[in-house]
From TrEMBL:
<protein>
    <recommendedName>
        <fullName>NAD(+) diphosphatase</fullName>
        <ecNumber>3.6.1.22</ecNumber>
    </recommendedName>
</protein>
<comment type="similarity">
    <text>Belongs to the Nudix hydrolase family.</text>
</comment>
<keyword id="KW-0460">Magnesium</keyword>
<feature type="domain" description="Nudix hydrolase">
    <location>
        <begin position="37"/>
        <end position="161"/>
    </location>
</feature>
<dbReference type="InterPro" id="IPR020476">
    <property type="entry name" value="Nudix_hydrolase"/>
</dbReference>
<dbReference type="GO" id="GO:0046872">
    <property type="term" value="F:metal ion binding"/>
</dbReference>
<dbReference type="Pfam" id="PF00293">
    <property type="entry name" value="NUDIX"/>
</dbReference>
<dbReference type="InterPro" id="IPR049734">
    <property type="entry name" value="NudC-like_C"/>
</dbReference>
<dbReference type="InterPro" id="IPR020084">
    <property type="entry name" value="NUDIX_hydrolase_CS"/>
</dbReference>
<dbReference type="InterPro" id="IPR000086">
    <property type="entry name" value="NUDIX_hydrolase_dom"/>
</dbReference>
<keyword id="KW-0520">NAD</keyword>
<dbReference type="GO" id="GO:0016787">
    <property type="term" value="F:hydrolase activity"/>
</dbReference>
<dbReference type="InterPro" id="IPR015797">
    <property type="entry name" value="NUDIX_hydrolase-like_dom_sf"/>
</dbReference>
<keyword id="KW-0479">Metal-binding</keyword>
<keyword id="KW-0378">Hydrolase</keyword>
Amino acid sequence: MKYKFCPECGEMLIEKELGDEGLIPYCNTCKKPYFEKVGQSVLVTVVNECNEVLLLKQNYVSRTNWVLVAGYIKKGETAEETAIREVIEETGQRSDKLRYIKSYYYEKHELLMLGYLMKVEKGDFSKSIEVDELKWFSFDDAILKLRCGSIGEKHLLNCLKYI
Ligand SMILES: [Zn+2]
């Protein structure tokens, strides 16, 4: 998202040359630059002690494809805290065994996704109302259930050597 008005004082922003950054929207009243903003989220591959991968079905997203756990980073939260919170909220699994793998840029939603791998001891499912189904899959089956070419598929493949 590109700012046109100052979010603090409402003034129309001007374009100002800021070193290597080039022309950046700038508020002449507050003397502050406003860099283009992207959202931040986590994407988590959850794997259990039998090397099975946990996938979710969210019918409001897709009725046919399964997805990995994902969620927006809230203000004041670290990416690791978000990953742990989202996995609990969406699946009921609890663990702090997290490994950062790689980040992805999701153009359509202007979203930077930080990809993690989480190892859990298989626990009871408890899901949020946003989740319609939860299931453990073998790695090979999980790859087939994710949408071909999706960021989820790329992330699961990138996690493979750490599983
Ligand atoms: Zn301002």
